Amino acid sequence: MRLLSRPLPAALTIGLVAELLFCWRLTTPHMLVFDEVHYVPAARMLRDLAGPVNIEHPLLGKTLITLGMLIFGDGPLGWRALSTVAATGVVVGVHAMLWQIFRRVRTANIGAVLALLNFTIFIQARIAMLDGFMAAFVVGGLAMLLWAMRSEGGAVWRRWLGGTVLLGLAIGTKWTALPYLGMAGAAFLLVRRRHPDLWPGLPTLAGLALLGGVAAATYFATFWPAFLYADQPLTLARLLPFQIDMYHQQTQVLPPHTYQSNWWTWPFDWRPVWYLYEPADGAQRGILMLGNPVVMWGGLVAVIACLIAWARGRDARAGGIALLWIASVAMWALIPKSLGFYYYYYLSSIWLALVIAAAFDHWRDRLRYWDEAFLAASAVLFIHFYPILSAAALRGPQSFHGWMWLKSWI
């Protein structure tokens, strides 16, 4: 298809397909699902500017849920509508990142479609949680920084600033985006050292200063609604101490949870999370936050393949993407959370789509058409698991056994 042979039409086509898929039966179930019980009430409080609630996280994600409710009403469509837009932004952003890195439309198409088929984006697209918005801003921000890399004149500065603003918005959604700001700065320094001609006209120190300064200013700007609360409004004097309060909330010791898991188990798809499994809207329904086994397990092989390509063939592009995934997992060894859950792996699961696409790009002469077979296998599993990803009507309470490959999934 000609549409899929040029970068912009291909990205828009894949994005349109993704949005339609995400929106199909979006309002099912009509009840609050999983962490929607926290974020939808918090969004209602924001809508009414009543006062602080759910203070362990910044405001922006809840503000976006509020915006959806203002546009589409206080119901399942309003709760989840903007999550679909964020997820579509992730799919298109993956395409943009791969295009900017490899300049091959096929590679970008493979990565974007794999991201779409990897279950996790689909599931987060259909629930009112913060992680989907955070991921959209992180992916969009990194794509903008890469876009600036080969730009000229004032476009370099504008796109660099756009990327830093998006990363600031990501942190304003959830603090777990903060390490990506550091990763972006480190990558900028390393790439600039080897290729000083990239980001022409943007001095290194200026780029780093903008990356940190603009992101910080954007982050603090996302707290503006809190200054308008009727009860306990935020003040400039309380803005910084409030960050400490948030930190204490984030790091408090929580009681054990049925679905908790350790970060080193996430890459193996070991302990997914049931967002829903109960009767709803007249039928038994389920939503299992699980990664597509073909992408998740195949992605681990691709990480090794990319590292080999970097070590043997000096393919820094493949190696850099592999390191992005490694860093995205390893950072959880340092984040002071008392409990971990599989959905924390959401951003890492997105990077796996890039890693797989990068591996196929590097080894394309030896693995000709293997990428298409890999896509086909991913699509088959997406169709197979679709009923317990989409809250489709199931036959009965024991239906879930038909999809349980591992005992740890139950």
Runs in which pLDDT lies below 50 for 5 or more consecutive residues are none
By helix and strand content, what is the structural category?
Answer: mainly alpha
Strand coverage percent:
under 5%
Rounded to the nearest angstrom, the radius of gyration is 21 Å
Main beta sheet, described?
Answer: 2 strands, antiparallel
The count of DSSP E runs of length 2 or more, i.e. the number of strands, is 2
Strand order of the largest sheet: 1-2
Count of helical segments?
Answer: 15
Helix content: 55-70%
What spatial form do the alpha-carbon principal axes imply?
A: globular
Mean pLDDT: 94
Query: How far is it from the N-terminal to the C-terminal residue, by CA?
Result: 42 Å
SSE order in H/E notation?
HHHHHHHHHHHEEHHHH
